[in-house]
Design goal:
Elements (H helix, E strand, L loop, with lengths): L1 H14 L5 H26 L3 H11 L14 H22 L30 H9 L8
Helix pairs in contact: 1-2, 1-4, 2-4
């Protein structure tokens, strides 16, 4: 569960720069929530042995069976620390995101059709004109 939330958080971290206005607030909230959820799941799962106890009881046939000598590593806490960083990034984006510049609309379509461009004439005696016509997708042998 922390892994899935961290992946959502990282995707939202990149998406927060691509959206504008209300979308940025929504993505920043998703970023903060995924960071909080991942941190909580990592901390709660760090010492949870219920799944191992139930598997030991199933395998042994003894309903009171429990796993003994279980040790824990530091990695769930490292995961929780990374998730807290995602949470802080989400809170920072919620607080200051309104002032951040948005991606440019240079490559966005306006919805209006463009005026047809008149194709330049090609001189068959100039090889560079023939290559330029091919680059434009024209057939220089026609016409």
């Amino acid at each position: 569960m922390p892994t899935a939330l961290a992946i959502v958080g990282l995707a939202a971290l990149f998406a927060v720069f691509a959206v504008r206005r209300a979308g940025r607030t929504l993505v920043a909230a998703l970023l903060a929530l995924s960071g909080a959820g991942a941190a909580l799941a990592a901390v709660l799962g760090a010492s949870d042995s219920a799944a191992l106890d139930s598997e030991a009881a199933r395998i042994s046939g003894d309903t009171a069976a429990a796993v003994a000598g279980l040790t824990h590593t530091i990695w769930p806490y490292v995961t929780a620390a990374g998730a807290v960083l995602i949470l802080l990034a989400g809170l920072c984006a919620l607080r200051f995101g309104k002032n951040w510049p948005a991606m440019g609309g240079r490559y966005e379509r306006s919805g209006t059709p463009r005026a047809a461009r008149k194709a330049p004439t090609t001189d068959p005696d100039r090889p560079e004109d023939l290559w330029k016509a091919l680059d434009r997708g024209e057939d220089p042998t026609q016409g």
